[in-house]
Amino acid sequence: MRAQNDAGRRTRRRITAGALGATAMVVLSGCSAEAQRGWLPGTRETTNHNAQLTDLWVNSWIAALAVGLLAWAAMIWCMVAYRRRKNDQGFPKQTAYNVPIETMFTVLPILMVFTLWGFTDRVQTSVDTPIDDSPLTVQVHGKQWSWDFSYSYQQPNGEVKEAHYQGIQAQLDGAEGVQDTLPTLYLPEDVPVHFELKSRDVAHSFWIPQFLQKRDMLPGKTNHLYLTPQEQGSFDGKCAELCGEFHSEMLFNVEVVDEATFVQKLDELEPGLVGDEYNRNPNNNPDGAREMEVDLQTPRGGGSH
Ligand SMILES: [Cu+2]
User: Which Gene3D superfamilies match (predicted)?
Assistant: First the structure.
């Protein structure tokens, strides 16, 4: 009788293990390219950072799933193995505490959090390492509710080209072709870009979803992003910080083009740069205010002299 029970249990265990293994295979191998990059937008090659950001994302999910499967299996096993059986009476054996198990429950999660933190820190440090010699610096000003782009590009022949574009608010009226009227950020393929991110008024956030990076734009502060676009094409950009009534219309286009086309586009833009002189709150920008001869003591809209 006992031998029969043992054999049955072993078979059941083998079936369970097989089913779990098959599920894991299907989930982990990923049925499609989308699944393999964790349904993130873009591809591994869109910028020089996409591959490592995708790997961090996908591997974190695999680790979470593995921990989840272990925890769920342990829970279900407890429920089944220690269920109340027919003819059971009273309470099961009551235990107050178990120091080794409770130590494990404390130490394991701490280890897991630090492991996750370690991998995140490594990728973050690599992605955010400043690059001082980018041939292209793009100063981006966020403003309610559009974008200013100022390009400073040192061409391979050493000549520096400066050009800018000042956006006006998009009018999303549902008509076709509105996207073409949005401000367009041009970037050359395979050229490292240094973005200087600023705000003219309130907190905004610079986000090109397919580039997998997003960064705050705060009044009175400059934030930085360093990346190299590696694939030509059109991408969507948007503000990712609720910044007022028309936040949802604070959109832009991104065109990654070859170097020659990029230089040609710069020639079509307004020459020179636009700086902080157009910031709405001159208190955050005393230099710009001085250039524009704004009196810092007088509130804007008020006072007369
Ligand atoms: Cu905004």
Answer: 1.10.287.90, Cupredoxins - blue copper proteins
**41: CA distance to ligand 1 center in Å?**
21
- Could you tell me which residue, 259 or 15, shows the higher pLDDT? 259
99 CA to centre of ligand 1 in angstroms: 52
Q: Which residues surround ligand 1, an ion (CB under 5 A)?
A: 204, 239, 243, 250
Residue 103 sits in the same domain as residue 142: no
Provide the token pair at 119.
Answer: 């991998």
CA 252 – ligand 1 centroid, Å: 11
Q: 163 CA to middle of ligand 1, Å?
A: 23
Q: Is 154 part of any domain?
A: yes
Residue 176 pLDDT class (50, 70, 90 cuts) = confident
In which band, very low, low, confident or very high, does the pLDDT at 55 lie, cut at 50, 70 and 90? very high
- Residue-range definition of the domain harbouring residue 20: 1-31
Predicted confidence band of residue 305 (pLDDT cuts 50, 70, 90): very low
10 Å Cβ neighbour count for 42?
19
Residues 153 and 265 in one domain: yes
Q: What is the domain count for the chain?
A: 3
